[in-house]
């Protein structure tokens, strides 16, 4: 049964009343054991003189010797001490009269399914065990902190490595860009020098009209003696001078090239077209060789010059 606030207050007042009763009994016992005051009698006090026994007369001395001995009074028996008052027994909770509750007990909507006996039977943790648990927890926290710091250090090193790799790639890209720009400038300078040399070596219109027996550019010892065949042979020779045949391209294999150029042999674009027996590396290398070979042959081939040119290139060694 649950103890109410009224039961607690009643038990406190009963304890206070019991202590007050014990204090009153102790006070009465002290008054009981107090000694009685001496009795004051009326009249003059008794006087006596001290006389030496040797100064008395012989008759008085004989009388004193014959004096009977006083009767011995019986010794008074010691009175039994009154027993001290004993404290009243404290009332036990089970002896108290149960008073009705002032108001009904609140309804518990959810029953308590916890086994109270099992809870009570559980041993109370010892201080040493609590210290061990706390020490183990501190060690685990330290291990977790160390592992977290190690992971943060690894992540920091990874970010630093990525940043360094990115900076390195940027530097390499900048170097490649500068090299490509320098190579383009060198190619442009070489092209200008070739154009200047071609212009200087080209005969004037008057000289061309005066010398009708001027021979066309040399061929490649083929059966076709036409200007178109000699122009194709000159283009083949110019591209071969700038091309290094990859090992994957067999000698004699052919590939179609689409070349777009300006008068004077300046190459605008060079692309590989089908049919072409070259692999990807061979195609990229032959396109680069066409750009390096500019300006392409032009002087003497003005009659067969074409801005959009289709060339059947044959792989050969220089």
Automatic annotation (TrEMBL):
Pfam families: TonB_2 (PF13103). It comes from Lysobacter arenosi. The chain crosses the membrane at residues 12-32. Keywords: Membrane, Transmembrane, Transmembrane helix. Residues 67-228 are annotated as: Disordered. This is Cell envelope integrity protein TolA. It comes from the Bacteria. Residues 203-214 have a biased composition (Low complexity). Residues 69-78, 129-201 have a biased composition (Basic and acidic residues).
